[in-house]
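Why do we care about 3D structure at all? Because function follows from shape, and shape follows, mostly, from sequence. That is the central idea of this module. The next example makes it concrete: a single protein chain, its amino acid sequence, and then its structure expressed as tokens.
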Amino acid sequence: MKIVIPGGTGQVGMILNRAMSAAGHEVTVLSRQPARPGEVPWDGKTPGPWADVIDGSDAVINLAGRSVSCRYTSAHLQAMMDSRVHSTRAVGEAIAAAAKPPRVWLQMSTATIYAHRFDAPNDEQTGMLGGAEPGVPGYWAYSVDIARSWEREQAEAGTPHTRKVALRSAMVMSPDRGGVFDVLLRLARLGLGGPVAGGAQYVSWIHDRDFVRAVEFLIDRDDVAGPVNLAAPAPLPQRMLMHALRTAWGVPVGLPATKWMAELGALLLRSDTELLLKSRRVVPGRLLDAGFVFQHPHWPGAADDLVRRVRGRGKSNRPQRRAA
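And the structure:
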């Protein structure tokens, strides 16, 4: 297949590019700063020569959008909104203008669209969308507005010959450096991987290999369209997630952090506490109903696998000892 990945130079894009290239597909990445073979320049908001690679492709997987790993200032939130909406609109225009449009357009979205809650899981049919929860910071609603606008832009695009799927993705856990698992593991190894603000908030996640398999599944399933949750079927409280991660690495203790400590840490890391404190209890209703089988449905087993791969990466990077 010919696959185009706008915004494919980030962690998730690299995971997909690596897997799909290894499977023999022809992958083209649209990037604002192309630096590798197979990368084509685009600005993420206006039509241009880049649209030629979409014409005749089999699938488009749009991942473009400013990173959420930042302080949620008004300027940064607006940049998140603009980068997602403008890039989605541009992709939709390119598909609409194509002489041979792709048969499927997978559009990245986020599990953050769901409400902050502890009482019940959110699936696509019965889940509660966020934005009006009591007792949470007001700016959390803007993250939900971003997700709604992102999905609306895809849904309203005039692409009648292309099936559209919105990927409401949870955190993708992979052993790659710089990703969310790398950050969590570093905290655990330093003894800082304890409960945050009590640790009752749910964490939704998906193992990187299940993420790739789910994307391949959705490309092949012509009967699935609209929002799909990409999350393992067993979200768990943050304290349990970190306990399992510490167990997998062999760290006996993890110091807890209060809410103000989390706020200080987020400030030092130039990130935001919403990423730590919002309870995201998301389950993959539509994937399971369609017959998708997770290889890593539960976090302890997934953490064990990811830790093994991190340790294996370290061994492969060690210099080999020469024989005397």
